[in-house]
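Researcher: Sequence recovery benchmark, item below. Answer with residues only.
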């Protein structure tokens, strides 16, 4: 999806380099956040011996002990992997 943004200013200094730098910085921050999330998901999967998708299915089906607080607090959205892939695609410019 392509979008155009037009910014009009009376400033004597060119804003384009500043905006490009700010956007690049945000992309880097998002990429680092994605990496951290991926690492946390892997840690979760190792800890519980199942993928986060399997966990979500079992948790939704009430196949897990709901009294186990560590399971409940570690619950992730079922489509988290898809969300991460979509964000990575946006960061990559696709």
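Model:
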């Amino acid at each position: 999806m392509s979008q155009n943004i037009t910014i009009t200013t009376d400033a004597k200094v060119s804003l384009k380099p500043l905006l490009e730098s700010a956007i690049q910085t945000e992309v880097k921050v998002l990429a680092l956040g994605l990496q951290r999330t991926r690492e946390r998901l892997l840690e979760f999967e190792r800890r519980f011996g199942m993928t986060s998708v399997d966990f979500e299915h079992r948790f939704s089906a009430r196949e897990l002990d709901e009294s186990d607080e560590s399971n409940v607090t570690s619950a992730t959205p079922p489509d988290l992997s898809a969300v991460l892939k979509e964000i990575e695609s946006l960061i990559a410019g696709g």
